[in-house]
User: What shape does this take?
Amino acid sequence: MDHTFNLTQYGERTALAAAGTSLVEALGLAAARILGIDSSELSGGYRVMPAGPGDTPGTAVNLDFFLYDTTPGGAGFAAAAIGRLPDVLNTAKQILSSCDCSSSCQRCLRTYDNRYDHLRLDRFLAASLLEYMEVGVIPPISATRQAAAFESLAKSVRLLGSFGPSLSAAPSRNGGQLTRAGRSVNIVMTPALIGGDQIQVDASPGGDSVRVSEFVLIRDLPRAATAVFDHLA
Ligand SMILES: [Zn+2]
Assistant: This one.
């Protein structure tokens, strides 16, 4: 299956790579579940390819996901899985949405075979990518995740500056506001697949704002906290 992504939306490919790796695992696990086989019978991957010879490099790519049999010579499982692609996609969606962990765990995406990728696997990133492939829109960050990320950021900034209760945190629809000693910073969170590893600072008389990718908040909270701290110290 091929899907075209407009890469102008992405700051870089780190978040896309984590999402792609996670989605490959979900597709493999889903296929194994549907076929009633052990997940070690299938492996998979994805390729990022130019969308076509006429396209401007770096603006659009095809993501090409593939599954293959781990048995030498092939056992036919991968072909059978492709034959049931709608079921595989639905089951992958269930695997990604039915856990209660914060990124990935043994109950959803982590297996012995993907042990070297455990820290990269993130069911939310994979679910976002899958939804984008289906409907063409990157979904917004869920309210629960956004609130949790804002709380972690506030806690981290408070610790970094030894601010204690002098730093107040007010969550909002797309992030929140941190205030200390009359200075405020608006935090605006962008979905990981759009924001990549970016932090953008907009200092203006009306109040500083920091636009930060959810991916940074998940993977590099100290960097985000430092960027915010600089505007409150
Ligand atoms: Zn889990």
